Q: What sequence folds into this?
């Protein structure tokens, strides 16, 4: 349970070792680069923006090529492969890739060029198909399409809008060009939208004929081919086939490059790492012969860095504590169990400067409450087994994913525990099966009690758990006050509240209302009763007097104190909020028994058994899924709103070390 | 008139399932529209927005729970229908109302909140944990209603 203490490390070394030191730091990955030095005459920053962007481009090109490879030659992947994490690669393979990087980049470019060509081919095919489409009405024409004249006659090929027959065309000509004689009209094809015609006339009449036809919306076709439409269509079809076979070739060519996939992945990672290195290189101040690099480092890693660097290079390493006004990045360190809830904490916010890391305390309550909400032994076993198998099967799982799965593993165990306590095994499946199919009912009795039969008891316990949770939160606040030596705050904001709340709870327990909830009457000795009263009164008075202590105006101070006392209602609603522990537990149990009941409706028959198995699998899968979600959401809420509300703000900045930030593979350490 | 007790009890069960279920259908529908919008832009967020969409669905389940407990209370599920006096029937009807009405209203409100939270997931996927909390806040009141309905129904003596 700790936020790792950060220190500032500054390394000053010779420029000749610059590359080696940077690479060493990057592969160690323990330092977050952060420079406080202002611009100086002697120290300048290098402009690495160009180099960096070219590396980034290379990495992006490699990524794109990998996407294309996936498109052309999909890799077989199981649904769980996303859990597998990054591969571990031998150094020799990595070195080989680095040595042949230019060659690999050429492959990357080739893949992209091939893909571009394929897109162009596809566009060409589309164009060709359009052209074939436009030739369809002209297919009956059996003369070359670019023909315009013979020795004495003109041939006018074109289309008229709408449907027309030979009669119509002659009528147009008679009406608009009455002087023309000897016109030969052929209807090539006629459709709803247009009519294709070939008109033969004397060359001298061409102008008049065309003008006449134009007045009815005639337009000549624009064709430059010396073939007949049928021949042209055939030629176009051939071209399409050629282009299609080119596409197949391209696809095969790209697929043939799939073997390079591994190497291209390493290449992408190599350029990514290099781009990061150049980013840092651009930040560090450099003089003529030396350079300075400065940043945050966890205290426990200092010795290692010193040992490694001072041994190998001429350099000066300066370690100092983080200054008061600086806000260092936050890195948490917890044992295996507690670290599984780090993801939950960081999605609320990492601890701010001065705050304690509540992870390990939260982890205990988290797992406990999660189990209470799901509370079915069989469900818990399933969740734990699945998570356990996943963790075993994918040892190199990405760390945050691994932590979440670990968390569910623990939550599953806790669910198993509460399930046994409350006697829930797939709801009441044992009772239902034995009653329906074997005639006499048996069941596993609950180790503690069955909430469905005695919900009030669990309600009281839920609130008790809640009170413990909330008191723990207040206790952590007290611890922080004591640690920072704010004894006044500790007394006024923590102790007084403890007194008031303990007094109120002790007053509530012997009351009628509690007796009716708990269904047992608890009688305290009179001493305890009056002690409770005095505790509450003392606490309340103290809060009224002390809460507004920052104010000098006495009236205002009392008013603020009274307002703070109003927070008692907040505590009440916080405690009541834990009733969801009961409600969600009941929900799991009741829905499970609805499923079992539905399954048993077929009675004792072959059909009944089949129905039962079907309802069992579908129903319980659904129930696990929906209640896992519910338990997850509401456990989070209890931590975030009720628990953290008492002491925790969050808002710290995560530690982002300078490291080899690869995407596909990690390189084995030598 | 004496036979009306069981009718009231059944009416209560029906109202619990009907109102809460209708509310969940509306809520999940509202959230689903937002979720579809996000997935059309970025199919990779499917799992996250699906979880968000499911959040207003729980009220329907709470309604189902109360309906089921009521039905088995009056013996409609086991076959042996109990003789329910009118007064008890009305009491059961009353006990079913909290989850019915609160379920209806809160599921609708939660649907809208879930739709807004899906907006957070679309723009800042890393804030998923916080985004999920806002719809969960609304759900608290459905849980409280479930609790009262459940305690009331299971404590009414027939």
A:
């Amino acid at each position: 349970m700790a936020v790792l203490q950060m220190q500032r490390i500054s390394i000053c070394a010779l420029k000749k070792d610059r590359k080696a030191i940077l690479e060493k730091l990057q592969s160690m990955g323990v330092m977050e680069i952060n420079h406080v030095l202002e611009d100086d005459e002697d120290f300048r920053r290098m402009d690495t923006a160009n180099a960096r962007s070219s590396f980034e481009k290379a990495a992006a090109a490699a990524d794109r090529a990998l996407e294309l490879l996936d498109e052309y030659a999909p890799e077989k992947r199981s649904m769980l492969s996303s859990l597998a994490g990054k591969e571990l690669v031998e150094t020799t393979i990595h070195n080989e890739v680095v040595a042949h990087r230019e060659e690999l980049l050429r492959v990357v470019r080739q893949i992209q060029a091939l893909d571009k060509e394929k897109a162009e081919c596809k566009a060409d095919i589309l164009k060709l198909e359009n052209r074939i489409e436009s030739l369809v009405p002209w297919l009956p024409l059996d003369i070359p399409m670019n023909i315009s004249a013979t020795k004495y006659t003109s041939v006018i090929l074109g289309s008229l809008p709408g449907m027309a027959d030979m009669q119509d065309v002659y009528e147009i000509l008679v009406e608009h060009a009455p002087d023309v004689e000897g016109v030969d009209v052929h209807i090539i094809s006629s459709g709803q939208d247009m009519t294709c015609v070939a008109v033969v006339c004397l060359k001298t009449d061409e102008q008049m004929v065309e003008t006449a036809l134009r007045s009815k919306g005639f337009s000549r076709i624009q064709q430059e081919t010396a073939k007949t439409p049928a021949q042209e269509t055939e030629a176009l079809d051939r071209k399409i086939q050629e282009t299609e076979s080119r596409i197949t070739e391209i696809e095969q060519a790209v697929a043939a490059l799939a073997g390079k996939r591994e190497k291209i992945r390493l290449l992408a990672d190599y350029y990514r790492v290099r781009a990061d290195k150049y980013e840092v290189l651009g930040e560090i101040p450099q003089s003529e012969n030396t350079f300075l690099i400065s940043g945050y480092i966890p205290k426990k890693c200092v010795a290692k860095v010193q040992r490694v660097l001072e041994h190998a290079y001429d350099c000066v390493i300066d370690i100092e504590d983080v200054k008061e006004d600086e806000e260092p990045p936050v890195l948490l360190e917890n044992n295996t169990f507690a670290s599984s809830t780090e993801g939950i904490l960081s999605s609320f916010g990492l601890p701010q400067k001065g705050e304690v890391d509540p992870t390990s305390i939260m982890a205990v309550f988290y797992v406990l409450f999660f189990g209470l909400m799901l509370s079915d032994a069989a469900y818990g076993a399933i969740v734990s087994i699945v998570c356990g198998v996943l963790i075993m099967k994918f040892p190199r799982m990405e760390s945050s994913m691994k932590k979440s799965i670990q968390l569910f593993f623990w939550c599953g165990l806790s669910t198993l525990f509460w399930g046994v306590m409350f006697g829930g095994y797939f709801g009441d499946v044992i009772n239902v099966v034995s009653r329906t199919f074997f005639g006499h009912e048996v069941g596993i009795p609950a180790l503690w009690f069955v909430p469905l039969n005695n919900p009030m008891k669990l309600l009281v316990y839920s609130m008790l758990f809640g009170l413990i949770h909330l008191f723990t939160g207040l206790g952590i606040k007290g611890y922080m006050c004591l640690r920072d030596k704010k004894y006044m705050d500790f007394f006024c904001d923590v102790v007084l509240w403890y007194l008031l709340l303990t007094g109120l709870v002790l007053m509530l327990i012997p009351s009628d209302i509690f007796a009716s909830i708990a269904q047992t009457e608890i009688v305290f000795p009179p001493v305890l009763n009056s002690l409770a009263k005095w505790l509450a009164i003392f606490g309340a008075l103290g809060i009224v007097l002390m809460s507004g202590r920052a104010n000098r105006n006495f009236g205002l101070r009392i008013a603020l104190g009274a307002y703070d006392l109003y927070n008692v209602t907040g505590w009440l609603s916080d405690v009541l909020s834990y009733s969801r522990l009961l409600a969600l537990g009941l929900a799991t149990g009741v829905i499970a028994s609805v499923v079992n009941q539905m399954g048993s409706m077929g009675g004792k028959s072959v059909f009944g058994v089949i129905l039962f198995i079907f309802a069992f699998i579908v129903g319980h899968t659904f129930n696990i899924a929906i209640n896992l979600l519910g338990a997850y959401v509401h456990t989070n809420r209890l931590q975030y709103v009720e628990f953290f509300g008492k002491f925790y703000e969050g808002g710290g900045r995560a530690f982002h070390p300078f490291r080899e930030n690869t995407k596909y593979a990690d390189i084995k350490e030598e | 008139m004496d036979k009306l007790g069981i009718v009231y009890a059944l009416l209560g069960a029906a109202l619990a399932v009907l109102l809460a279920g209708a509310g969940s259908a509306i809520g999940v529908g509202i959230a689903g529209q937002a979720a579809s919008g996000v997935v059309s832009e970025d199919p990779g967020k499917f799992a996250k927005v699906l979880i968000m969409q499911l959040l207003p669905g729980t009220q329907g389940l709470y309604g189902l729970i109360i309906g089921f407990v009521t039905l088995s209370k009056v013996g409609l599920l086991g076959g042996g229908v109990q003789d329910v006096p009118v007064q008890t029937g009305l009491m059961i009807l009353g006990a079913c109302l909290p989850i019915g009405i609160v379920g209806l209203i809160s599921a609708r409100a939660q649907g809208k909140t879930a739709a807004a939270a899906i907006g957070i997931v679309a723009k800042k996927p890393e804030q998923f944990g916080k985004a999920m909390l806002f719809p969960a806040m609304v759900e608290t009141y459905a849980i409280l209603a479930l609790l009262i309905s459940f305690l009331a129904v299971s404590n009414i003596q027939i």
Observations:
- Residues 4-41 of chain B form the longest helix (38 residues).
